[in-house]
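I am still getting used to backbone structure tokens and would like to learn alongside you. Label the sequence line and the structure token line clearly, so we can match residues to local backbone shapes. Would you write everything just below, so we can both look at the same thing?
***
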Amino acid sequence: MALTPDDLTDDLPLQRSPGPTWQDKLDEDVNKIPEYLRTESPYLNGFEDIPKDRYLSREFHELEKERLWSRVWQFACREEHLPEVGSYIVYDIADQSYLVARVAEDEIKAYPNACLHRGRMLKTYDGRCSEFRCPFHGFAWTLDGDIKHIPAEWDFPHLEVRSEEMMLPEVRVGTWAGFVFINPDPNAEPLEDFLGPEVIKHFERWNLQDRYVAAHASKIIRCNWKIANESFCEGFHVNATHPQGMSYTGDPQSQIDVYGNVARQLSPKGIPCPLLPYTPTEEEMLRDALDVREGEDLPVPFEEGDTLRGVLSAAGRERFRPTFGDGVDQMGDSEFLDAWVYVVHPNFQPWGAFNRIVYRFRPNGDDHETCIFEMMYVAPFSGDRPPPAEVVHLGVDDPWTDATGLEKLAMVAEQDTFNMEQVQRGLKNLRREGVTLSRYQESTIRWKHDLLTDYINRGPVQL
């Protein structure tokens, strides 16, 4: 029976992809994951289109600056980017800039990046210092933010009675799983409350704080930051954008969960995409996953009766055994195999389990039609923590493959980036007011816009 507009309510039965689900494949795994990692929490909130002006409008960009970036928790750096007292990074978001610094062995602070004399930016690059000294006139502050030196102090008698005004104002700082977050809103909830207990418990299992940045690339893309971000919030695009993955990745069978300010997509490996016109064998899936042609030797043992899931999860355990020891034998097969893509509102995507991938998306300065897309590998290590990899900066016309540390991921990112600029251009040609989303596979995108609407509707930050 055909649907009518009155049928389009959240009570409409939820349809899922034909074929086995992620939960079905978990039941087959030799090593099981704990039940708290298997919980399902779908997000169903209407069928309305997303207004295209959210990607195109300068006015909406200004609202984001005033009501989102000024009050939301946002990933600034990894803790290893601040290895010593005095280490600092410059974190830029839209037209704002912040200094994030290790001011004591166990304390990190953040300040707006501006001299309190005439407003000159205190730092324009990352580094290490013993004080924050303005290059313009020489005003200086301690790492703790106290005024340290006023040149020609005799000419500023008014500052003696306004000394508190000369302390660097602080913005809130929080750490989680080795990541450092800031929030410019002094009235913001604690980072732990923002993330929520479910997600914190998930990541406690995987020890991301005991990793290091093994590769890091940053590329300017000709599109709004949300277009780039949303390209990685659903697996619906794999059949058209990444056809090489269709034989061994069941992206339509992905599970989508939402936990407050964090969502996740769980995509199983070892399931052919149901849109594929044939059913590959286990060996064919394995060859495609490892990019090994027919007739070439596989780099992993494979016997008759073996499955992709069994072979690749076993290989994953051995890859992580030197770091995590025999504890890997107690971990689930899925944790070494499947894609656990977590999305922390609004622009941060740390993959879970034993994946290494981390994404971040930001406006490119104050330009709402270009953005900065960053990819990192956060990898395990043995012995002393290696220094974090230097950032490879790529311009709009530089290929991701120039960042060789990203390995095969760079080629996949090239396929994704190919679409982003064309979406930005295509939206200007779109003869309707919004973009349409699927109900389940793209529900993370709807959730992101619902949260964004909530931030916009709160009004300006009250400092």
Observations:
- The longest helix spans residues 408-429.
